[in-house]
Design brief:
Length: about 190
């Protein structure tokens, strides 16, 4: 491969192409949330302010779009850990991240079954995300324990299990509000005894 071709293959996307991609992903997330995985791809393109050809150039199939929406939500969750840790006190960073985790659960509930149905076994999409989620929650809890805001015996995974549990027994569309209230209960219950 020539040096010029190699350089072109690793070139960053143009800024307008990157903005189009981001708008498509955001419109797709909203459309899939509102209408389910069978949401119209043409409507998603329209909502994103791009033509169908632009959508299909970025995401040739519904499966690639669903996978990209899921990975984007996962990336937001993973990178939020660093952002919250830098900007907020330890316990508030943990709380903010757990609230974002509720949104992640909602995205996974919507997209996960669709990916499974479409791809058969979407392990490659999910495996990396699980490791990054566990690393993020462990880092946030460790920081909150170190600050004295959270009990030393708290297992970070218990916080996630509680929120996932609420989502798994969800029988109504307002389970996310319940999960958000549960975040505050979990934080209060994780404080050290006085």
């Amino acid at each position: 491969m020539s040096a010029r071709r190699k350089q072109a293959s690793v070139r960053k996307p143009r800024s307008d192409a990157q903005r189009n991609r981001e708008r498509i992903l955001e419109a797709a997330k909203e459309a899939f949330t509102r209408a389910g995985v069978d949401a119209s791809l043409d409507e998603i393109a329209k909502e994103a302010g791009v033509g169908p050809g632009t959508l299909y150039r970025h995401f040739p199939t519904r499966e690639t779009l669903l996978g990209a929406v899921y990975r984007t939500e996962m990336e937001k969750l993973a990178s939020a850990e660093r952002k919250f840790a830098e900007e907020l006190p330890p316990v508030e960073a943990l709380r903010a991240w757990l609230l974002l985790f509720v949104d992640y659960i909602a995205a996974k509930q919507l997209i996960g079954p669709a990916l499974t149905a479409l791809l058969g076994d979407p392990k490659k999409v999910f495996e990396d995300s699980h490791a990054r989620v566990w690393d993020a929650i462990r880092a946030l809890v460790k920081r909150a324990i170190k600050s004295g805001d959270i009990r030393k015996d708290l297992d970070p995974i218990d916080l996630l299990r509680a929120l996932i549990g609420v989502a798994n027994v969800a029988t109504s569309p307002d389970w996310q509000q319940s999960a958000r209230r549960l975040v505050d209960i979990l934080i209060a219950g994780s404080r050290p005894a006085k």
